[in-house]
Amino acid sequence: MSTSPDNRPRRLRTEIPKPLDPALVASLSAADLGLRRGAVALAAPSPRWAEVFAGVANVLNAARPTGIGAIEHIGSTAVPGLAAKPILDLAIGFEAEANLDRIHPWLLSLGFLCLGEKDASRPDLMYGFEIEPGIRLVNAHVIEHGAAEWSSYLAFRNYLRTHATEREAYGALKRRVALQNPGDRIGYLAGKAEFIHARRSH
Question: How far apart are the C-alpha atoms of 41 and 76, rounded to whole Å?
Fold first, then answer.
């Protein structure tokens, strides 16, 4: 299935989740994660984040539909030693021929909220997971496996994992921008954008 602007899936945001999957709840409990929607705050890096991702991925993989190529841990919680907003970011890569009408109910059945498309310029279909309403624990980005945006997510993560000086510089930038934008998520993202875009091709 193509993710071009004319063909990519359209899903409406919903605030009415199905019952939360007990195994997913268990994997996220006491996980040093959770941030109120729209807030900007950083947490010290936690070695548990990688373990929590492994647990979440196991739950997802146990019932995943055909057409899922990979599930990856992305974002700052995927980079050891880097401060991060305490929300686990996942990239769920679907194959080009996948039936997204099966992927959508799979995530809803686990208790994810459908958040709609990330924005007009990017093909991510976004889902969030919350145990306490309004406190986000997981953001799941559903995107075509191997597409440009998929590769960019992994390239930036891997670059920070292997370049300590750049990782430290990014951490300092994140702290500065977070202090400048304590309640402004859009401003926080804009303040990091130039750094990220300059390094996503590495």
Answer: 13
